[in-house]
Amino acid sequence: MYFGNAYRTDGMYKLSTIVLTSVINEISTFVYSSTLWHNKLGHVNYRKMLNVKKLGLLQNCEGNKPKKCEVCIQTKITKKLFSNVTSSTNLLDQIHSNMFDFKSFATRGSMKYFSIFIDDHSRFCYVYLLK
After folding, report:
1. Is there a contact between 53 and 61 (Cβ–Cβ < 8 Å)?
2. CB burial of residue 20 (10 Å; 0-12, 13-18, 19+)
3. What percent of the chain is modeled with pLDDT above 70?
4. Could you tell me which of 14, 66, 84, 99 has the fewest CB atoms within 10 Å of its CB?
5. pLDDT tens-digit profile of 74-127?
6. How far apart are CA 77 and CA 97, in angstroms?
7. Beta strands in the chain (DSSP E)
8. CA 110 → CA 37, 52, 74, 129, distances in Å?
């Protein structure tokens, strides 16, 4: 399908569109799966997608609940409760840390992991990016 021409101006691409009415009508009749919208919206919760659809912002989305998303399952972090936890009363008495990976994505500086350190008393958080 042809939509128009793009040209670069001031570091931005602008789209000069010459679109026929029939092409616009054809595009607007596409119905996208809720799984596709789930992926496009950054793996948003299904109930949130329904709220957005009720607002009229997802007019061409089918109403079926998306299948279990493999990305959501892999990245879900569960937290187990600790028993007898006492908060520290002084800075740097107790530090919590955790290590994460970007799941096959790297940052601009080729960093694939990050570590978080949180002071229990002040809740000051520091993040280190790691290769």
Report:
1. yes
2. exposed
3. 79
4. 84
5. 777 666 777 777 888 899 999 999 998 877 777 888 888 899 999 999 999 999
6. 15
7. 4-9, 12-17, 95-101, 113-119, 125-130
8. 29, 35, 22, 10
Burial label, 52 (beta-carbon count in 10 A; 0-12, 13-18, 19+): middle
Q: Say which range, 31-40, 43-52, 73-82, has the weakest mean pLDDT.
A: 73-82
Tokens of 16: 């000069």
Q: So where are the chain's domains? A: 4-74, 77-130
Q: Which pLDDT band holds residue 20 (cuts at 50, 70, 90)?
A: very low
Q: What angle do CA 77, 81, 87 make, to 5 degrees?
A: 110
- pTM score: 0.38
Q: Which amino acid is at 107?
A: T
